[in-house]
Amino acid sequence: MAKEVENTRPSFTSPRGTFIDPKLTEPDYGSKDYPKPEGEYSLKLRMSKADADAFVNLKGKDGQSLQALYDQALREAERQFGELKVESRNKLGSVKSNDLFTVLYDQVTEEPTGEVEFKFKMKASGELKEGPGAGQKWTRKPDLFDGKGRKIGKGVDIWGGSEGKVAFSVRDYFVAGTAAAGLILMLNGVQVIDLVSEDSRSADSYGFGEEEGFG
Fold first, then answer.
1. What are phi and psi of 172, to 5 degrees?
2. What confidence score (pLDDT) does residue 209 get?
């Protein structure tokens, strides 16, 4: 049911990037101080700023770009902000927009590195709130594929440093209590093109390419 709802949202497939802190095969339940009782799958995708700028302006399957949807989300946030009580608006000041991606900086020079990171996440479980199935529990996980488009089975660990693409859908948000607004990038599926697992290195890092034979 949850996936059916998300399938109606604008969807995109990212360009190739590097996985940072991926949690794709087992849900992350957080920590004692910051628990995530419903579990969460997530990863950050690192790529060049140039690739990111080109991607966010590229029209997706629904004919709209990520940038256009982001701009639309901020306009809607401004509308909702204007409907808050004057006391709240005076206290908050203005809408606080959260960027589509995080620009990375060199910690020594404090200059931009030329790379950025997108963050994707998926709730692992929940409960239907309305409709004929209200009260029913659900679970889900992202679909994982290898470089040839085949489903990745159990027992494959996907570590940081792996490279691939991310399929995701988007949802806008406005938090009245903080005036924060933007787009949530909701993880749907991942294609792993170069796998790093435990202490392994990718084929490309050894100079290996695709050849006929095993696999």
1. -85, 160
2. 66
Cβ atoms < 10 Å from Cβ of 186:
16
Tens of pLDDT, residues 145-162: 999 999 998 889 999 999
Cβ pair 28, 36 in contact under 8 A:
yes
**Please, which residues have CB within 8 angstroms of residue 197's CB and are 6 or more apart in sequence?**
156, 157, 158, 159, 162
Helix segments in the chain, DSSP class H? 2-6, 49-56, 66-82, 86-92
pLDDT band with cut points at 50, 70 and 90 for residue 5: very low
What is the rounded average pLDDT of the residues 25-38?
93
The set of residues, in sequence order, having a beta carbon less than 8 Å from that of 109 and lying 6+ positions away, is none
Beta carbons of 16 and 147 less than 8 angstroms apart? no
Measured over the CA atoms of residue 121, residue 130, residue 182 and residue 176, the dihedral's sign is negative
pLDDT at position 86 is 97
